[in-house]
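INFO  loader      accepted 1 record
INFO  loader      residues=269
INFO  predictor   begin
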Amino acid sequence: MYRTVLVIIIAASISNCCAETSGMDNITFADAPYTVAIVPGSDASFNATLKNAGVGYVDVSVIVRSVPDWILVNGTNKLRVIRRGGSMAYPITIHVSGDAPPGTHHFEIADQSRIDKRTWVPVEVYMLREGETLPARIEEVEEEEKIAEIVKSSPALGFIRVRSYPSAADVHLDNVYQGTTGGDWFWIYNVTPGNHVVSVEKYGYERYTETVSVSERNMTVVSASMSEIPAIPAETAPEKVPAELIPLAASLLAAAIIAIAIHRRNRNM
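INFO  predictor   done
INFO  writer      dumping tokens
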């Protein structure tokens, strides 16, 4: 009987310790970054697509930060279920007040679930004047021409482009260093078709790793949003006990007391 109780206590303590977070970044935005053009005093909408690379179904919502006072963000508080390997689009609506200043501004959105770390990505908001339309970006035209040249020169191979948040991060393909990201896309050319592992690293941030599938004549996009590693003061680090270890410690203490009691009873018999 005592041994059964001991096993139950230990199992419960391990479950409590590890249920809240997997320590992995399995929920990521599939189509970041996001750009919204809007006339002050009106509404605009966009879809933020999240994908689940974890091991099961996950309840996920979207949260925001660094939102200017004159921008109202709606549609982020709804909880949605994403199956393993699946994705879900979150329709997000923003309202900008009529006194919004001109120019381009931004805020950030992130996924939020109980078993995953947050992934922050920027949303750029471009203020249009009345009657103005968003001009075509010159770099988009240049990019199309660049892709056409790559496909023509290496028709049997694929290519990958990477953007990191923040920038100035080291990019590795299958553990081989490729270069450092900048403010624009970082390109990896002449990639053989098949599955490859892309990892992005920057000092002070969690390493981002993604397995991608590359096919002939096609481009694979990787948007790496890295979470900053929180700083822990050296003088307080040895004294602080992680909250998730408290149930485990208490259960192990109870198990030790029960084991001592069993040992004494057996010795007195």
